[in-house]
């Protein structure tokens, strides 16, 4: 009960041996190959450093892959993240709070969560050109790529996806990463959308293993000047291998819209 981010308690790791590590691993959570998993925790480092891991396991208990982050900032609660796509053969995922070999020090972990969601679903991460990581801005005859991560407004966090459409002969489309899907299952995509002018569309798309789009459902939003939750859903048709969500300003439309906090539920 030394300190906590929320509630009364947290996990305390005290590492006094620079030849050995100290780790606390979560129970195994069922996982599916090809899906994106996002682990988060709040960490407080008093001294030394702390590491936070996401780990993917096969049915024999072999660790297939891991991603981790290291925190050395001391004296404050900091949100840390470890995420990744589950590789082929994955049946479970774990999170681990860890003080590495060679490290000595004291750290605390609290509010550890695991989300199975669309990667970068709140558009907080961007490349050097303000394009959203893990999302594809479509190009070609019918599209042009005027979309970016923006701090103009957001529904959650600090940023959102901003689409600016100035050509009524072309559309602007931003598609999520492909998430593994099962034929016959029902999928629901949700997003928060803010339309400043014109209108906006939100799509769910089903794909086979060769990259052919089998089906789509979408919704159109024309209400302006407020954040509104939009939904696109459907049953994955036969031969579905993956599902995507797409934020879209269609051909014939001109205007500006924002998307944030995008989720996919089965």
Going by CATH, the architecture of the largest domain would be Sandwich
Beta-strand proportion: over 45%
Instruction: Average the pLDDT over all residues and give the rounded result.
Output: 94
The biggest beta sheet reads: 6 strands, antiparallel
The CATH superfamily of the largest domain is identified as: Galactose-binding domain-like
Range of helix content? under 10%
Number of domains as seen in the coordinates: 2
Task: Just give the CATH class of the largest domain.
Answer: Mainly Beta
Give the end-to-end Cα distance, rounded to a whole number of Å. 38 Å
Secondary structure category: mainly beta
Gyration radius, in Å: 21 Å
Uncertain runs are none
Number of strands: 20
SSE sequence, one letter per element: EEEEEEEEEEEEEEEEEEEE
Number of helices: 0
Estimate the global geometry from the Cα principal axes.
globular
CATH topology type of the largest domain: Jelly Rolls
């Amino acid at each position: 009960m030394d300190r906590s981010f929320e509630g009364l308690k947290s996990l305390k790791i005290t590492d006094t041996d620079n030849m050995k590590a100290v780790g606390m691993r979560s129970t195994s959570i069922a996982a599916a190959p090809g899906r994106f998993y996002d682990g988060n925790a709040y960490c407080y480092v008093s001294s030394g450093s702390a590491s936070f891991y996401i780990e993917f396991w096969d049915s024999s208990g072999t660790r297939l892959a891991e991603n981790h982050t290291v925190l050395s900032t001391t004296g404050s609660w900091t949100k840390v993240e470890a995420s990744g796509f589950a590789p082929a053969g994955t049946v479970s995922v774990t999170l681990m709070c860890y003080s590495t070999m060679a490290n000595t020090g004291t750290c605390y972990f609290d509010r550890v969560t695991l989300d199975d969601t669309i990667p970068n679903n709140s558009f907080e991460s961007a490349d050097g050109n303000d394009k959203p990581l893990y999302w594809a801005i479509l190009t070609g005859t019918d599209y042009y790529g005027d979309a970016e991560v923006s701090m103009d407004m957001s529904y959650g966090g600090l940023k959102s996806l901003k689409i600016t459409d100035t050509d009524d002969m072309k559309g602007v489309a931003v598609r999520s990463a492909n998430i593994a899907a099962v034929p016959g299952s029902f999928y629901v995509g949700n997003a928060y959308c803010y339309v400043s002018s014109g209108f906006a569309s939100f799509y769910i798309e089903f794909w086979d293993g060769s990259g052919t789009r089998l089906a789509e459902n979408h919704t159109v939003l024309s209400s302006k000047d407020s954040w509104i939750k939009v939904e696109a859903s459907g049953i994955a048709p036969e031969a579905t291998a993956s599902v995507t969500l797409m934020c879209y300003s269609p051909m014939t439309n001109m205007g500006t819209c924002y998307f944030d906090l995008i989720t996919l539920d089965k």
